[in-house]
Structure formats: structure tokens, C-alpha cells
């Protein structure tokens, strides 16, 4: 049995199980997790299965959500895109966090947001674009009718 297989945290998981689960939660393939931990792919899968059984869940994603869900810095947030862009600091984030540099680090992210709007704003923009597209199509239809009338009046 590999090292670091002692009980860990409040969930009764071993340190190796937590590392395998964290690798999964950070969207690493099993092959890469195994290489980083120096164990076989089968052993990674066995540890993930043991975690699912221990937490009585149906998927590794559910298990990772339970274990890492409240720890902001230990997971990659799924609402952030995978890019090599530099960290983006915004003035609004600074004002939200106050003067403390520690709290500012918690508010800002290491990745750029994919969507800067809330659900309502996103749906509003989708609706506005749809209305704009329909209005544009109606204008084109009216222009076609006008062109047809003009051609008819000119005898073509």
C-alpha cells in the first residue's frame, strides 16, 4: 500500500484519496494524476471508487463537491475559462474587498471570468439580441416588398 494512506480530514479519507480526488476536481486525467502521485492509473481509480463509497455518492464530481466545495483556493472554479491570460484586477473588486490585501486576494480570481453578467442580465441580453434579429428580418422583408412594388411599377 502506498505511503500517506493515513486517515485524513473530517470525511475519513486518506491523504492519497484526497490527492486523487483533488486531481479529479481540477480536471486532470487519471493518467496525469497517477504520474504526479507516482502510482498506477488503476490505483487512482480504486481510490476514487473508495471515496465515492465512503461518502455514499454516485460520482466523483459529487464527492469532490462535498470535500472541496467550501475551499475556494483548492479547486478551479468551473465558471472561469482555461487561459494563459494574466490575472485581472478590477477597481470594483478592490472596493468590494476593502483596503486589506488578504481579502482582496480572496475576492479576485486568477482567471478571467467567462461571463461578467448575472443570470438576469444574461437573459436580458439574449432577449435583446433576439428582438434585434427579428426587427432586422422584418426590415429586410419590408425592403423586399418595396423593391418588388418598385419593379412592378417600372414594368419589369
List the helices and strands and how they pair.
Blueprint: E1 7-8, E2 13-14, H1 15-25, H2 30-37, H3 41-55, H4 60-68, H5 91-97, H6 101-107, H7 119-154
Antiparallel strand pairs: 1-2
Helix pairs in contact: 1-2, 1-3, 1-4, 2-3, 3-4, 5-6
Plain-language structure description:
By secondary structure, the chain is mainly α. The chain folds into 3 domains: 7-74, Winged helix-like DNA-binding domain superfamily/Winged helix DNA-binding domain (Arc Repressor Mutant, subunit A, Orthogonal Bundle); 79-116, no CATH class; 117-156. 60% of the residues lie in helices and 3% in strands. The protein contains 7 helices and 2 strands. It has a two-stranded antiparallel ribbon with strand order 1-2. The protein is rod-shaped, with a radius of gyration of 27 Å. Residues 1-6, 77-81 and 102-110 have low confidence and may be disordered.
CA-to-CA gap between the ends? Answer: 89 Å
The CATH architecture assignment of the largest domain turns out to be Orthogonal Bundle
SSE string:
EEHHHHHHH
Assess the beta-strand content as a share of residues.
Answer: under 5%
Q: What do we call the CATH homologous superfamily of the largest domain?
A: Winged helix-like DNA-binding domain superfamily/Winged helix DNA-binding domain
Q: Helical content, roughly?
A: 55-70%
Strand order of the largest sheet: 1-2
Radius of gyration: 27 Å
- Low-pLDDT residue intervals, each spanning 5 or more residues: 1-6, 77-81, 102-110
| Coarse shape | rod-shaped
Structure class: mainly alpha
Mean pLDDT value? 76
- Name of the level-1 CATH class of the largest domain: Mainly Alpha
- Number of separate domains: 3
Q: Would you give the CATH topology of the largest domain?
A: Arc Repressor Mutant, subunit A
Total helical segments:
7
